[in-house]
Each structure stands twice: as C-alpha cells, then as structure tokens.
Specification:
With 401 residues, the protein is α/β, with parallel strands linked by helices. The chain is built from 14 helices and 12 strands. GO terms for molecular function: transaminase activity.
Length: 401
C-alpha cells in the first residue's frame, strides 16, 4: 500500500460520529443536523428538466475536456460574474465538483522529486481535502492560522522565506470555510507578488462565492483583472453544488493559467474524470441562469436574519461576509464538549471547530468554535437556534456563580 496513506487524518465527520456514538439524545426531540455543509434547498427545476431532456447522453463516452457548449457557458458566466474574458478552449476545464478537482490538481502540480521537500501552504482551519491531497502528493503542509485578530485571514507576512522557497502550491479559500471571510484586493496583490517572486501556483477555492449578502465577493479572476495581471500561475475552482443546490451532480469547472490547465487536462485524461454528457447539458442550463441563484441567496439571507438575533445574546457570533456557515465561539472554550452536550441534551448536531483545524504555531485556531451550517429549511434552523439558546441558558443556570 502507499505508505503516505498512513499520514491521513480521520475526516471531521468521522470524528464527530465517534464523539456522538454512545450519546443518548432526547427521543422526543427530532434530530436537527447543522454539522455538514450539504445544501438542502430544492434543485432548480430547469436543471432537472435539462437532465431529463438529455438522457440520451448516457449512451456516449464524454470527452475529458467537456463539450464546447459547457466550456462556453462557464466562460460566459465567468465574464458576467468576474469581468474576466476567458478562452473557453484553453482557460476553462469542466470538473466533477471542486473537491475532485482540488485533489487531482494537487497531484498534477506537486513535484516531489527534488532535493527539498515541496510545501503546500494552506489556511487553518481548512477543508480537509487540501491536507490529504498535499500529503498524498508527497508535500508537507504549512498552515496559516486564520484567527479573529486578523479578520480570519491568512497572514502572508508570517510565512518564513525558506517556506516560500519550497512552496509549490498555495491554496486560498475565499469566501472561507468555515469563517465566511473574503480576501480583499490588497491581500490578493500581496499574494500575487509572492507568486511572482517564488513561482508557486495559486489554487483559489471559490465554491461559496455565490452565497453572499451584500456585494459579490472578490475572487481570484476579478482580483487579477483589477490589478492588470494575466492569469499566470492562477487557477480558480468553482462548483454548482452550493450555487445551484445540486451537490449530487458533481459539476464545476476550473479556470485560469492555460499552461497549467493543459497539463491538468493531460493528467485528467488518464485519471478518468470525464463528466457525463447528461450532466454537462444540465450544467449548461445552470450556468446560464441566475434567477434560481438569486432565489437561493435570498433564502439563505432570510435564515441568517432569523437565526442571528436569537444566537447573538448567548454566543459570540457575527454575520459572515459570505457562505452559509456561522463560526461561533462557545462560552467555555471547549468546542468538543459543547457539541457533545448539545447533541445529548437538545438533539442538535454542530461541528467542533477544532476538528477543522490543526495545531500549528502553538495553537489550534478552530478550538473554542463550532461551525453551524444553515443548510436546513428556515423553520428547522430557527428551531435549532432556539434549542441552542435553551441549552446555553440551562448550562449557565447550572454553573455556580
């Protein structure tokens, strides 16, 4: 077996299942899960119609590069959204969701054959695919703690020069999972300058970009355009899962540096990751429509408006810049104990923040927080928030003064 498999950590939800395995929640309360970031809103009818209308596509082998129609739809959307004019033939590549692409892109990019061990720079907390992909590619991780004191943003100045010299890939997640923080143009400018100096590729994970509450979040493509840059050493990854409530379709695309995407296409040709023609046709329909995205965004905004006023009197939690998570600091700082007791006493599941992060630079930046995913319907989210309030009030009443 590949010995690098031994370096992989248990997935956060595996750890959560272990934590709650012997817990006995009140049977009278129906379970409400706010732990997993799985969209629960209905899939758009236009996507379902397109799937049904294109079932003949199941009879054919799809090309790894995708159909011209899909690449054009992705390029058109990127131009409308980011003002970036992409070449659909060389700067756009359909992928089976951003998770698959993040993993395979890392395998394609990392060269572990040199004298110095390559480094992947990752935010901390983070989506665990970043870590697993880096370890299995033979790289080591350099974690950048994203804490409240720095607006939950990576501190590029805090990376030592010897790390930058070995860095081959820097992963950005903006809007961030779990914090919802968005990188500003100054931070992008700094990161681009570092890429120019040290030669690493930037992979910008933007799967939460379309769930926002004010202005559309800045992305890597729009940052490059605003700074008058080319797309050299930049790859943006996005997905329909959150934007269009179709996580089961496994559909997204990557865009950016044509030289990187050419090699990535070669890798994917051998990797066997072509998207079904039926799913491609439905994806064209999704990327070409914004009405369902606006309705989806409004539904999330309504949930935040209903839930935050309930939680803020008892939890330290703020409105995120984007995304569908609340990143809440728990009262006593023990996120694991909080999550277990909440499940046992109120039958609500949230994810301990420390499960989403690693001990780095003397701290685990997820410790003391829980991630609350507002993915269920509004009534369920409100009911869960009310139970969290009752749970905290009961805990406080039981604590000696």
């Amino acid at each position: 077996m590949n010995p690098r498999l031994d370096q992989l950590h248990p997935y956060p939800f595996q750890r959560l299942a272990t934590l709650l395995a012997d817990a006995k929640p009140p049977a009278a309360l129906p379970h409400i899960s706010l732990a997993m970031g799985e969209p629960k809103h209905p899939a758009p009818q236009l996507v379902k119609d397109a799937l049904c209308a294109n079932l003949a596509g199941l009879s054919g082998y799809p090309a790894t590069q995708g159909t011209p129609a899909l690449r054009q739809a992705c390029a058109d959307w990127a131009e409308r959204r980011y003002g970036a004019k992409l070449d659909p033939a060389g700067e756009v590549l359909p992928v089976n969701g951003s998770r698959e692409a993040l993993f395979s892109l890392t395998q394609c990019l990392i060269d572990a054959g040199g004298a110095a061990k390559p480094v992947v720079v990752s935010p901390n907390p983070f989506y665990q695919i970043y870590e697993g992909a880096a370890l299995l590619a033979g790289a080591e991780l350099h974690y950048l703690n994203c804490e409240a004191t720095n607006r939950f943003q990576p501190d590029w100045d805090g990376v030592p020069a010897d790390v930058w010299r070995r860095a081959q890939l820097v992963i950005v997640c903006s809007p961030g999972n779990p914090t919802g923080a968005v990188m500003d143009l100054a931070a992008w400018d700094q990161l681009f300058a570092l890429s120019d100096r040290y030669g690493f590729v930037i992979a910008s994970d933007e799967c939460y970009s379309e769930i926002y509450f004010d202005a559309p979040p800045l992305g890597g493509l729009s940052a490059a355009r605003a700074l008058g840059r080319s797309l050299e050493r930049l790859v943006m990854l996005t997905s329909l899962s959150k934007r269009s409530n179709v996580p089961g379709m496994r559909s997204g695309f990557v865009a950016g540096d044509a030289a990187v995407l050419k090699q990535f296409l070669l890798y994917r040709t051998y990797h066997g990751s072509a998207m079904s023609l039926t799913v491609q046709a439905a994806s064209v329909a999704a990327w070409n429509d914004e009405a369902h995205v606006e309705s989806n965004r409004a539904a999330y905004a309504a949930k935040f408006a209903a839930v935050l006023p309930l939680l803020q009197p008892v939890l330290e939690v703020e409105m995120p810049e984007a995304g569908f998570y609340l990143w809440a600091r728990v009262p006593d700082g023990d996120d694991v104990a909080f999550a277990r007791a909440l499940f046992e006493q109120r039958h609500v599941t949230v994810l301990p923040g420390s499960y989403l992060a690693r001990d780095a630079h003397g701290a685990n930046p997820g410790r003391g927080y829980v991630r609350i995913a507002l993915v269920a319907g509004q009534a369920e989210c409100v009911a869960a928030a009310q139970r969290i309030v009752e749970f905290i009030q009961t805990q406080r009443a039981a604590t000696p003064a």
